[in-house]
Amino acid sequence: MPPRDETAREGGGDATPLMELRNVSKVYGGGVLSRTATVALDDVSLTIPGDSPQILSVVGESGSGKTTLASLLLGFISPTSGTVLYRGSDLSRLRGARLREFRRDVQAVFQDPFAVFNPFYKVDHVLTVPLQKFRLGRSKAERQELMVNALEAVGLRPDETLGRYPHQLSGGQRQRIIVARALMLRPKLIVADEPVSMVDASLRATILESLRTVNQTLKVPILYITHDLGTAYHVSDHIVVMYRGGIVEAGDVEDVITAPKHPYTRMLIDSIPWPDPRRRWGSEETGARNGVEVPEDHQGCRFAERCPAAMPRCTQAQPPTYLAASGHAVSCYLYDEKPTLPKERLSALLTQHSSLTSA
């Protein structure tokens, strides 16, 4: 097989981002059979350059829109409005070779390390199928070498892994095989959706370390979807905080976790049982304060009914995104004295925030 044209996969050297969400919304229900509509994602814009080998975490409670965001980027679902782009092309319109290129460039690691495997096949099966589908390796020996190298890259011993059935391996081993499967395809992006939520706590560090090693040694950017701020803090470079389908805070992970701006982010961080005997767990309270009435059908901030800093204006209109500090954006009226940040500049803040000091 002739060598692959990596220049073509890089988009010819231009500045076209690998993946992009442009004003994307996703609404479930509300049709003939259901009068109730659920807004899973609301007018979100996000760009993933593909040439910046960082780990970007997307965090939030269940129902915040994290998995919907991942599913849109992977092409599993289509947006209700807005556009998902792959190298500048509408993802929903990709066909043939272009679609196969996307499937190879953007790989997924899901939360369930059990559902991926067929119990009647040896674990080799999940590795050999993509090799055959994408025609990797000119011989059986080359394909075997690709599998061995990928397994070793995630800390597995091939002689103790290949030839076994899924039930003969631990959950952590199975999850690392899925990471190895993605690596064999030399992806441009790995979307890891809650990859450690279904494994024992003792294995989480091992799997996350494997992802971090892949990111640092092979320069593969990772979008890490999680509800766990603790793991996000330890493995990420930048972080996006979501609440009920919208981005409420974003920036450098150190800045966001150590100096959170949005009341929702503060609440999430306060829920983490940090090992500090002087700090009382759950010391931050939530709930509307200052006598502010928050109508059920208000058009304002999504967090208003739970926010201890709610103001009357919070129920009237969604707050814009403010540049609260260098490289730190927040959607909250508490920072209305700060410059606003246009939606299209949010992604730039997550990759080169040092030069972004004003809107």
From TrEMBL:
SMART domains the record matches: AAA
Cited InterPro entries: AAA+_ATPase (IPR003593), ABC_transporter-like_ATP-bd (IPR003439), ABC_transporter-like_CS (IPR017871), Oligopep_ABC_C (IPR013563), P-loop_NTPase (IPR027417)
Domain ABC transporter: 19-269
Pfam families registered for this protein in UniProt: ABC_tran, oligo_HPY
Gene Ontology biological-process entries: peptide transport
GO molecular function: ATP binding; ATP hydrolysis activity
Gene3D superfamilies: P-loop containing nucleotide triphosphate hydrolases (3.40.50.300)
SUPFAM superfamilies linked to this entry: P-loop containing nucleoside triphosphate hydrolases
Alphabetic keyword roster: ATP-binding, Nucleotide-binding, Transport
PANTHER family membership: ABC-TYPE DIPEPTIDE/OLIGOPEPTIDE TRANSPORT SYSTEM, ATPASE COMPONENT, ABC-TYPE DIPEPTIDE_OLIGOPEPTIDE TRANSPORT SYSTEM, ATPASE COMPONENT
The protein's name: Peptide/nickel transport system ATP-binding protein
